[in-house]
Amino acid sequence: MGMQILSHIGIVMIFSPLLLGIIGKTKAFFAGRRGAPLLQPYYDIGKLFRKGNVYSTTTTWIFQAAPVVAMAAVLVSSVLIPLGGLKAPMSFWGDVVLFAYLYALARFFTILAALDTGSSFEGMGASREAAFSCLTEVVLFLNLMILALISKSFVLSQMIEGGALVGPALFLAGTSYFLVLLAENARIPVDDPATHLELTMVHEVMVLDHSGWDLAYILYGSAVKLFVLGGLLVGIFIPSDGLSPLTQTAMFLGGMVLLALVIGVVESCMARLRLNRVPQLLVGAFVLALVGLLVVLMKGV
């Protein structure tokens, strides 16, 4: 079991930054630029790991612990879902609740670290993050509830493997979950990970004071979070029953590349929404998930 967990986490850590590279390349293509190398996120994270940390005298241990806790939380969440032909190393009844609240734990410590700096600027980002997460969490649970009803299980890996959504429920739950994925990973149109100096940003403003190893943990953790939440989406919508493990793995990796391309296209074709529009977008995701749930209930699943 120990080796299985380590290999699972190893695969997630190896491939996660590649998604960011694909998104960057896609955005560069649409902008008519050559863009940074595909492996640029690996270079950026490696460069940060070679640097030292700088701490303000106003911060406490919370500021130093938050990046490590957030990174550990998203890594633990990765062992609860299957990755292509690899089964989930850990699964138990109700693990879906743990999966959702591991991200809440990471977000909680990130917000605490932002408040710990004493900066009103970072406090502003923390309040926005907390407000938006109240909406995304509900939508995430609604989508997971749809999967639970279809698979008749509260075990996350069984929900993914048995979540063969079809028809309207597929479109509604998929669209709703995709919007949650963009919001949870601070992507356009909810947030822009490329900005650092605008008063409209949300997640990036909370990590401005981090440097060196701590910032590397935050960037790596963001990449892992995108990979795991994306893996959940790909696992649901790409059926793998009856296929060999090698074929399942190939289809899973192909699905992840396709997901990164779609995110890159969305970020190339859309602008970031005004802050007062973001709650409306998330409410729209909630309505989609709610209608999808009603569709599943009416079908008597």
Characterise the protein shown here.
70% of the residues lie in helices and 0% in strands. By secondary structure, the chain is mostly helical. α3 (61-78) runs antiparallel to α4, α3 (61-78) packs parallel to α9 and α9 (212-237) packs across α10. The longest helix is centred in the middle third of the chain and has 32 residues, at 120-151. It starts with a helix and ends with a helix. The model has no long low-confidence stretch (mean pLDDT 89).
- The radius of gyration computed from the alpha-carbon positions, rounded to a whole number of angstroms, is 19 Å
Helix content: over 70%
Number of strands: 0
Main sheet specs: none
Q: What structural class should be given to the helix and strand makeup?
A: mainly alpha
What is the terminal-to-terminal distance?
34 Å
Shape: globular
Relative strand content: under 5%
Low-confidence stretches: none
Descriptive keywords:
mainly alpha, globular, 301 residues
Topology:
Elements: H1 2-30, H2 40-49, H3 61-78, H4 95-116, H5 120-151, H6 156-161, H7 167-184, H8 203-206, H9 212-237, H10 245-269, H11 278-298
Helix pairs in contact: 1-9, 1-10, 2-9, 3-4, 3-9, 4-5, 5-7, 5-11, 7-9, 7-11, 9-10
